[in-house]
Design brief:
This protein is an alpha/beta fold and 235 residues long. It is built from 7 helices and 10 strands. The protein has helices at residues 42-49, 75-80, 97-107, 113-126, 142-153, 172-187, 199-204; strands spanning 2-13, 16-27, 31-36, 57-62, 65-66, 82-85, 160-164, 191-195, 208-213, 216-219. Strands 6-7-8-3-9-10 form a 6-stranded mixed beta sheet, sandwiched between helices. A 4-stranded antiparallel beta sheet has the order 2-1-4-5, with helices on one face. It is globular, with a radius of gyration of 18 Å.
């Protein structure tokens, strides 16, 4: 099943055409990189997926929602099924990690305190931050904050995770850890679409790659040549 299905979509920022004739399908359980230079439309494309930018031309389906006719009052229903990871974290700085996560759960309809506490405990454990719930965001390193952002994104067990440069402000080793974490989440069942400029990460963690360039979105995933031996030697 395709969670994202775009046919002949034009993406605009205000009146400026950013991407033309976008044709892309992304299925359940895929890990996909979205690459391209600054200003080529990566973030704009991402914004159409969660309704921040309207789709005015073409056919666009996201998790069964028609993005060309989706009314603003239905956006919260779509976004409950999405996890969004921002480069600049966007954590609430006036409250603890625990309170940040609690705020999101309550805002998305969770009411049972026991279930809320258990879900917060579960996601913090998953991202390796089980002992950090009492901390304020300012007390955490950049990598730790990004782990909390990932925890926040997976609170509602989303089918689709959109990550906008999640390693952009992190050092190389922390970036590797974040990508490893996202790939673990993908293996557990979520589709992940990740914007990155870091080609080293793609080499180390190969995956499907979409490229934004010259107003086009192209699948540039390297295919194994026919007859290539893809087996790995085991020591």
């Amino acid at each position: 099943m395709n969670l994202i299905d775009y046919k002949d979509v034009n993406v605009y920022q205000e009146s400026q055409l950013v991407l033309q004739n976008v044709n892309v399908q992304i299925g359940e359980g895929e890990f996909v990189y979205l690459t391209g230079k600054v200003g080529t439309g990566k973030s704009s494309f991402l914004k159409t997926l969660y309704g921040e930018l309207p789709v005015q031309e073409g056919e666009a389906q996201v998790m069964g929602y028609d993005m060309t006719s989706l009314r603003r009052r239905h956006l919260p229903d779509l976004r409950k099924k999405l996890g969004i990871i921002f480069q600049d974290f966007q954590l609430l700085t006036d409250r603890t990690v625990d309170a940040n996560l609690r705020f999101v759960l309550k805002a998305t309809g969770w009411k049972n305190k026991v279930e809320i506490n258990q879900r917060i405990s579960d996601v913090l454990e998953l991202v390796g931050m089980a002992t950090k719930g009492y901390k304020m965001p300012s007390e955490l390193s950049g990598g730790e904050q990004q782990r909390i952002v990932i925890a926040r994104a997976i609170l509602n067990r989303p089918q689709l995770i959109l990550a906008d440069e999640p390693t952009g402000n992190l050092d190389a080793e922390t970036s590797r850890q974040i990508v490893e974490l996202l790939r673990q989440i993908c293996k557990a069942g979520s589709t992940v679409l990740m914007i990155t400029h870091n080609l080293n990460l793609i080499e180390e963690f190969p995956g499907r790659q979409l490229l934004c360039e010259n107003h086009q979105l192209t699948d540039v995933t390297l295919k194994e040549p026919e007859g290539a031996d893809t087996t790995e030697e085991i020591d």
